[in-house]
Design a protein that fits this description.
Chains A, B: Belongs to the LysR transcriptional regulatory family. Chains A, B: InterPro entries: LysR-type_TF, LysR_HTH_N, LysR_subst-bd, WH-like_DNA-bd_sf, WH_DNA-bd_sf, YidZ_PBP2. The structure is a homodimer of 310-residue chains. By secondary structure, chain A is an alpha/beta fold. Chain A has twelve helices and eleven strands. The first copy, chain A, has helices at 11-23, 26-33, 37-51, 67-84, 107-124, 140-144, 187-192, 207-215, 231-235, 246-249, 263-267, 290-306; strands at 56-59, 62-65, 98-105, 127-133, 150-153, 162-176, 194-198, 220-225, 241-245, 257-260, 275-283. In chain A, the strands form three sheets. In chain A, strands 3, 4, 5, 6, 9, 10 and 11 form a seven-stranded mixed beta sheet that branches. In chain A, helix 1 packs across helix 2 (26-33), helix 1 (11-23) crosses helix 4 (67-84) and helix 5 packs across helix 12 (290-306). The first copy, chain A, is elongated and about 80 Å long. The interface between A and B is large, with 61 and 61 residues. Chain A binds a DNA duplex (30 and 30 nucleotides) through helix 3.
Chain lengths: 310, 310
DNA sequence: TATAATCCATCGATACGATTCATGGATAAG
DNA sequence: CTTATCCATGAATCGTATCGATGGATTATA
């Protein structure tokens, strides 16, 4: 049964298929592809034979995509990108490349990685435009619809067309104003204090906060801010405590004191509670693009340079 | 430059290219493809035009692949698999499917996941043959050369053509014979004891052992065994201590006592030291195969069922 | 309801391209 | 030097993708 001659499919056919899908019309696709309408119709029939599915069925004088066609569209786009990667024209030469890259990242990972990434990458490239957009709660759609090329997040989206790779591990520490209080060394002391944490309205809470929640441990969170940069003013001159990735302590929170989380608090918590693992994620589409692969490599190198320790 | 008509490439051309590469000969490829030799030669020329690279150059009366051709071969194989995924014949029906799956996994992950996976998956399938092979130090070649379909490991290989996904997190605990000693509650007590650990000759040491090593902490390891199943005889009736993933305590080491790692030991260690994160990894080739995707989904479900806690 | 407009499928003609057979130049082996 | 084998090329053939034109079907408009 499977014996449809799938090997007969070529890039032109894929492009035609995707165009028909996007236009929702054979005639419109023909116009966009600068072909005769009948040619598109015939080509579509050929593709129907090759994949063994009607792909589009008539409904009135329009056509609607079958379920199978819906499934095929992203796959077809993927294959077209793969075909492009076959050409020899892709000899990627950093020294002559003028690249534009859009990265979605929230405050912590942005400030930690991207400045160093930029200086490193830009030094080797003819030109680099780096667009950083807020990721919010990162979704696979951002990558699928090419709203960004890469996404940096501790909770990257999953999906069969999404690839993710670990960048670095960090550990949560308590940060506080050393002039106003001392480090909480036990769970009791920790829970007795007043806390400030980061809860972005459109993103997931920190895995640390979620883990405590899951344990039924409720600390006294008196202030929540939308991002890490908002913590400092609340810590300064107060006895508030924040639990943040330790690397942040080397950035915006340099002026404060840091201490490890109370050991007895962690003993009860699930593994990885005190660890924040940062990933980068991208779409399969960009997998074989040598320029993007190079950029990802640079970012990875920056993360590696920092080492896994705080 | 980029203006080679890469869309003109079709599956037949890719297959021809790969065949010529594998045979190292135009004539031999023609025989295997059941075509005339000149047809292959012409087709090869067509492909040369389309991708803008000689692909094979004459050397004596043989031909040798160019660098670019070498790079293209895996990509071509990938695209052929992608094309196969276009056909409608792939409506995957578990109830009628007779599958054969080869998984590379070492002892811990094998015993923990695969029995439950097998019963779960086999119950839904017409037939399932599960081959489990030892992974040793897992390499991307095992996946590339299709020696296995999936690999389960805490240290999955990396590569642009390898996809990995987290299965579950576990935490290291101390395991010992409760009749002979008590739990080490401090780093000092921990280091005063005698230890047994797992070091497989052809695999990486455990991340826990590596982390301690990295800190310059040398505990007194008096016995090493090649896999987890070898631990029990050495623990039984002795004062030896082993640090193993806590889930193992529920399997082979049920008879022993378990205790968390000393907190002060972990405080100095890098984040994630006490966490073992288990991944599955597979080759891009199997990404769009619905049967394999289904099997991976089942395995994931089993891992999820166990929850992230021990 | 009749008419016009638009859509997609089909038909015959045409041009392009893929394959075949036959041949030639090059290399290596006998 | 001869022979066998390899790959490339040329001419001829066959298949097929495209075109323009046409027809059947559906929807919008008067």
């Amino acid at each position: 049964m499977g014996s449809f001659d799938h090997l007969g499919v070529d890039g032109h056919l894929l492009r035609l298929f995707v165009t028909v899908y996007e236009e929702g019309s054979v005639s419109a696709a023909a116009r966009r592809l600068d072909m005769a309408q009948s040619a598109v119709s015939h080509a579509l029939n050929r593709l129907r034979r090759l994949v063994g599915d009607p792909l589009f069925v008539k409904s009135g004088r329009r056509i609607v995509a079958t379920q199978h066609a819906e499934r095929l569209v992203p796959q077809a786009r993927l294959l077209m990108d793969g075909l492009k990667a076959l050409t020899a024209g892709d000899g990627f030469d950093p020294a002559q490349a003028r690249l534009s890259w859009t990265v979605a990242a929230n405050d912590f990972q942005r400030d930690l990685l991207l400045p160093r990434f930029y200086t490193r990458a830009a030094a080797q490239l003819a030109d680099l435009r780096l667009q950083v957009i807020p990721s919010g709660r990162p979704t696979s759609e951002m990558l699928r619809e090419a709203r960004c090329d890469l996404l940096i997040s501790p909770a990257p989206p999953e999906g069969l067309d999404i690839i993710q790779k670990r960048l670095f591990d960090d550990r949560y520490v308590c940060v506080f104003d050393g002039a106003r209080r001392v480090a909480p060394t036990s769970a009791a002391a920790f829970l007795a204090g007043r806390h400030v944490t980061v809860v972005h309205p459109s993103a997931d809470p920190l895995n640390f906060d979620k883990a405590l929640e899951g344990l039924g441990i409720h600390r006294d969170v008196v202030v929540t801010v939308a991002n890490f940069s908002g913590l400092a003013p609340f810590l300064r001159g107060t006895d508030l405590v924040a639990c943040v990735p330790s690397r942040l302590h080397g950035l915006e929170l340099r002026e404060f004191q840091a201490a490890p989380l109370p050991a007895d608090l962690l003993a009860a918590a699930p593994p990885g509670t005190d660890t924040l693992r940062m990933y980068m994620a991208w779409h399969l589409r960009g997998q074989h693009d040598p320029a993007q692969a190079w950029l990802r490599g640079q970012l990875e190198a920056v993360a590696r340079e920092m080492g896994d320790d705080a």
